[in-house]
Amino acid sequence: MAKAKFETPAFRPYPVVPVIKQGVMKDSRSFVSKPGMQESLGYPGELVDNWQEVAINKLGELLTKYRSLRVYLDTCVKCGSCTDKCHYFIGTNDPKNMPVGRQDLLRQVYRRYFTLAGKLFPKLVGAKDLTRDMLDDWYNYFHQCSQCRRCSVYCPYGIDTAEISMAAREILDAVGYGQKYCNEIIEKVFKIGNNLGLPGPAIRNTLEGLEEDIKDETGVDVRLPLDEEGAEILFVPPSADFFVEPHVDGLIGYGKVFHQAGISWTMSSHASEAGNFGMFIGSYENMRRVSMRIREAALDLKVKRIVFGECGHAWRVAYAFLNTLAGPFDFLDQRYPIPQHICEFTYDLIQKGALKLDKSANDHRRITYHDSCNVARATRMGNKPGGQFVIPREVIKACCNHFYEMPYDTIYDETYCCAGGGGLLTDELMEVRVKGALPRMEALKQVTDDHQVTHMATICAICKSQFTKVVPYYGFDMDQIISVHQLVGDAIILEPNDRG
Amino acid sequence: MESWTTFYAVSFYVATLILTMGVGYKIVQYAKTPAPLKIPTTPAPLTTGGVVIRMLLEVILFKSLFRSNKWIWLFAMLFHGALWVVLLRHLRYFIAPEWVIFPIWELVELIQPFGKYGSFIMLFGLLGLLARRLFVERMRYISSASDYLMLILLLVIGVSGVLMSFVTRTDIVQFKAFMLSVMCFQWQNFELPAYQMPTDSMLLVHLAAVILLMIVFPFSKLLHAPGVFFSPGRNQVDNPREKRHVAPWAIKQFETPQA
Ligand code: HEM
Ligand code: SF4
Ligand code: SF4
Questions:
Q1: Is the pLDDT of residue A456 over 50?
Q2: Alpha-carbon distance A44 to A62, whole Å?
C-alpha cells in the first residue's frame, strides 16, 4: 500500500451527527482532459473564451431536454433529508458533498439565470453568478459524486443528484473543461473497443491462456470464444474481466456456466466492453455511440441473445437505456429478456437444476454481498421489483454454505456505493475514494466481527477495482474481494460437453 | 367605496391570477419537457397502477422521508396534515351552502372544530421545522433567507389566524359577504357596509400574508407541490426492457435519416 498523504477516517463506534468542515475537499481534483480526447468526443479542446455564455446556453438547452433536471432544480425545499446520506459527505464532512449541497452548486446558477426570483433577488434566494470559482467548484464537486443515487432514495421528491451531476459534467464538457479519466476511456472505446484499450489479438491471447488454465485445473475443455459468428449468445463483459484480479476469476466462472448450459456463446472484440462511460459524463450522444457497438456486434455475429457480465453502471445502461439508445432489438429472440444479466442467466439454470453445484467447494470462505449502487437503485433482474437483490443472493447461496448480510441499512436499495463509481476510479482522487468508502468499510467490519466473514462478493467491475485498492487502508486484505461468478465457477461440477 | 375593501379585492384578483397562471405555466412546462431515459429509482413498480400507489404513498404519507429521518417526517406530517384540514375548514368562507350538493356543506361544518384546533398542530409542525433549520448545522448550511422567510410567512398566517379564532374575534359574517362578492364579481355590493372588508388588524395581517403566499407560490420552492408528481425518479414505470422509450428530440436527432 502506497503511503497516503491523507488520513484514513476512523471507524465510528456508534452513530454520530455528522459535523461540517467547509472546503476540506476543495482541492481534491481529478486531471483535466486533453484537447485530443475532448475533440474525439465532439467537445472543444480547452476552456473556450466565452465559457460563461456557452455554459448558460448549454444549461438552458438541457433544461428543455431533461424533465429530471428542470423538476429537480425547482422542487427542492431544503428539507435536509438527504444531507447525511452521501458516503462522500460521511467520509469527508465537506458540506458541498452533501447531496443538496452538491445540487445547489448548479441550482444557485440556475436560479440566477433562469428564475424570476433569482434574477430580481439573488441574495434572498441564494442565487449566484457563474464565476470562475463556481466553475471550478462544479468541476471538483461534480467529480466527487459517484452518481450512485443513494440520495434519491431518501428525498421526498426523488431528487437524484446523479442527474444533476451528469448535467453539470455535460456543461463542463461543452465549455472544454472535461475530465481526463472519463474522456480518455471513452476515446479508447471509440478507437479500440474497450475501456482498457485491449486490442482484439491481446484479448484472444488472454482467453486462450485462460482456457489452458481451466484445462490444467479441471481437465475439461471450457471454451472462452471470441468473435464466433452464429453463436446463440453475445456475451459482453466489462473489459477488466479480461485482465485483472479478482475479475478474471469471474470470467472463468461465466465460461464454466455457459459450458454447463451447453449453449453456444461468443464475446466480441468490437463490443469488448460492457461499461459505458458516456453515462458518467451525461452525454446522450456519446452513450449512444458506445451502445451502438453492441448492436453492431450482435448484428455482425448474428446472435439471438445478449447477456451482460458483472458490472454495475454497465448494467444500468444495458438494462435501462440500451433499448432506448440502440433498439429496437427485433432481430433477437424475444423469448428472453433483452439484454439479460449473467446472474439472471445463471439463476435460471440453477432453478432448472441444470447446474451441479458443490457448495462445500466454498467452505473455506465466509461470504457477504455488496449490492452495487447502480444495480440496486437503477435496474432490475428477473420479473419482480427487487429481483436485483434476490437473484445474486440466491446464486451465491446456491454456491456456498456460509453467507451473512451486512447491516440492513447498508444493503438493498440503501446500499452504500463502493466510492469508486461514476468516473472517480482514478489515482488522483484516491483521497475521495478512501474517505468515501468509510460507511461500506464500517459495515464490512461489523459483519467481520459478528460472523468472521472472510470475503465480500460483488457484481461490478468498478466495485472490485475500487475495493481491492481501498480495503487495505481499513485493515482488510485485497484478496477478500471476490466475483460472484468466481464462487459459481469454484462450486460448479464440470462435465465435458459435446462442443467441448 | 372603502379603500381597504378595494385594496384587498384587487389584491385577491391579482394574486389568484398569478397563482393559477404561474402554477399552470409550470405544470405545462414540466409536462412538455421530455424525460428521454428511464430513470425510476428502483425497486420501482412494473405497472401504471403500481406507480399510482407509489405516488400516493409519497404524497400522502411522505414514505421516502419516513425512511430517511423520523424528525423531519414528524414535523412535515404535522404541518402538511394540519394544513389540509385547516384549508378544508376555510371552505366555509368561500362557498354558500346552496352552491354545493349534499353532503359537502355538512362535511365542511363537521370539520370546523378539527380545523380550529388543527391550527395549533400546524404551528407546532412549523416551529419544529424552523427549529431544525436554526439549530441543526447541516440545515443552516443549506438554508438561504427565503427558506426561513417561507416558514415565517406561514407562521404569521397561522398565528394571526389562531388569534382571530381564539382572542380578538372578527366579523366572520361580514368577511364572508365580502369574499363571496369578490368571487362573484358583485362589486356593487361594496357600497354597503355589510359587504365591506372588516378592518380589524389581525384579519388584515392574515389576508395580506395569504395573498403574499399566493403570489410567491409559483416562483418559490412551493413548486414542490406540483413538482413531486413530475419526478421521473418516482413516476416512471420500470419496464425499459419490455417497452422501448424514446424522446421525440432523440428520434429527431438520431433516428431520422438526414436528407
Ligand atoms: C401535493 C402536495 C404537497 C406535498 C406532497 C408536500 C410535501 C412536502 C414535503 C415532503 C416536504 C419536506 C418536509 C418538510 O420540510 O416539511 C415539504 C416541505 C414544505 N412544504 Fe409541502 N407539500 C405539499 C403541499 C404544500 C403546500 C400547498 C404548501 C404551502 C402552502 C407547502 C409548504 C411547504 C413548505 C413551506 C415546506 C418547507 C418546510 C421547511 O422549510 O422545512 N407544501 N412539503
Ligand atoms: S448520487 Fe451518490 S455520490 Fe452523488 S450525491 Fe447522491 S449519494 Fe452522493
Ligand atoms: S432531500 Fe430532496 S428536497 Fe430535501 S434537501 Fe435533499 S434534495 Fe432537497
A1: yes
A2: 18
Same domain, residue pair A157 and A198: no
What does the mean pLDDT of chain A come to?
A: 95
Q: Which band of pLDDT confidence, cut at 50, 70 and 90, is reported for residue A1?
A: very low
The CA-based dihedral angle spanning residues A143, A416, A275, A31, taken in that order and rounded to the nearest 10 degrees: 20
Candidates A98, A159, A163; nearest CB to B138:
A98
Q: Do B240 and A386 touch (CB under 8 A)?
A: no
Partner-chain contact B141 A74, CB within 8 Å? no
Q: Residue B219: which of A72, A117, A152 has the nearest Cβ? A: A117
Domain boundary, last residue among A143, A178, A213: A178
What does the mean pLDDT of chain B come to?
95
A65, A153, A157: residue with CB nearest B227: A157
pLDDT on residue A500: 43
Q: Is B136 contained in some domain?
A: no
Domain count, chain A: 2
Q: Find, in chain A, the residue whose alpha carbon is nearest to that of B245.
A: A324
Which residues from A are below 8 Å from B230, CB to CB? 67, 71
- The 10s digit of each residue's pLDDT in A184-202 is 999 999 998 888 888 989 9
Q: What is the pLDDT of residue A71?
A: 98
Q: Which range of residues forms the domain containing residue B58?
A: 3-68+144-255
Nearest of A96, A107, A97, A281 to residue A177 by alpha carbon: A281
Chain B contact set for A116 (CB, 8 A): 219
Mutation pick for ligand 2 pocket among A144, A417, A433, A438 (CB with most ligand atoms within 8 Å)? A417
Domain range spanning residue A52?
35-178
A403 lies in the same domain as A474 = yes
A368: phi then psi, degrees, rounded to nearest 5: -125, 165
Answer yes or no: do A66 and B33 touch at CB < 8 A. Answer: yes
| Residue A394: partners with Cβ closer than 8 Å, 6 or more residues away | A347, A350
pLDDT of A3 higher than 70: no
**Count of CB pairs separated by less than 8 Å, A with B:** 209
Instruction: Assess whether pLDDT exceeds 60 at residue A230.
Output: yes
Residues A372 and A436 in one domain: yes
Number of independent structural domains in chain B = 1
Any domain includes A22 = no
Of A159, A178, A197, which residue sits at a domain end? A178
The amino acid that residue A210 corresponds to is: L
pLDDT of residue A18: 84
Together in a domain, A150 and A234: no
Q: Are residues A386 and A407 in the same domain?
A: yes
How many CA atoms does the CB half-sphere of B188 hold within 13 Å?
0
